[in-house]
Amino acid sequence: MPLQFSFTDEKKAYENAPAGQYIATVIKILDKGTQEVTYKGVSKKVRQLLLSYELHDLDNPDNLTSEGKPFSVSSTVSLMFAPRATLTKIVKAAIGFKKFKEMDETKEEVELKILLLGKSVILNVIHKKSKDGETTYSNIDNTSIAALVGGVKAPETVNDLVFLSLEVDEFDPEILEGLSDKLQEIIKSSPEFIACVSNGPDF
């Protein structure tokens, strides 16, 4: 089934998801390429992914946006599979510990899209104020990410599934063009995007 993508009105006000625990399904995996990040005064370059989740509150199915749709939340993670890396924790929760252990033992390589897109986890959404205190953001508590248990199943997603890779043989410019101007600017600054444009077909 081909990936589908629908354009959104960027002028529409963003609605924060209420704080709490949700079943969260990965609906977007966006390769941001290598970006410079600074932590505790130290700068380094890291390959990053933006992951977006569709949220479902099983205890309160009416916990929806003003348009009657599920809330969503996004986070940027480093593209690394170190034991304590956030992405490792997400993949382990999404596919289950048994499958993850088998892959680790056999060093099996599986496409990230297959591992995560459309897969579900449990996570907590927390609220955080901006530095000036005027804006509230919905963030993911990465320490809360866990696998679904007890036979719980995620509801079918309402939003389309979107995957953007900056690997030359996977890059789809139409997906990129459907993103916000700000996100496009970030992605286009990466060496991976430049390599796609330089080495891929004419876009």
Annotate the secondary structure layout.
Elements (H helix, E strand, L loop, with lengths): L19 E20 L2 E15 L15 E7 L7 H10 L1 H10 L5 H5 L3 E10 L6 E11 L15 E3 L8 H5 L3 H8 L2 H9 L4
Explain the overall architecture.
- With 203 residues, this protein is α+β, with helices and mostly antiparallel strands.
- Strands 1, 2, 3, 4, 5 and 6 form a 6-stranded mixed sheet that branches.
- The protein is built from 6 helices and 6 strands.
- Residues 1-11 have low confidence and may be disordered.
- The longest helix has 10 residues, at 86-95.
- Helices cover 23% and strands 33% of the residues.
- It has one domain (20-167).
Q: How widely separated are the two ends?
A: 23 Å
- The succession of helices and strands, N to C, reads EEEHHHEEEHHH
Counting DSSP E segments of at least 2 residues, the number of strands comes to 6
Number of helices: 6
Structural class: alpha+beta
List the uncertain runs: 1-11
Beta-strand residue percentage: 25-35%
Counted up, domains total 1
Task: Quote the average pLDDT.
Answer: 88
CA radius of gyration is: 17 Å
Describe the largest sheet: 6 strands, mixed
What is the overall shape?
globular
* Fraction of helical residues: 10-25%
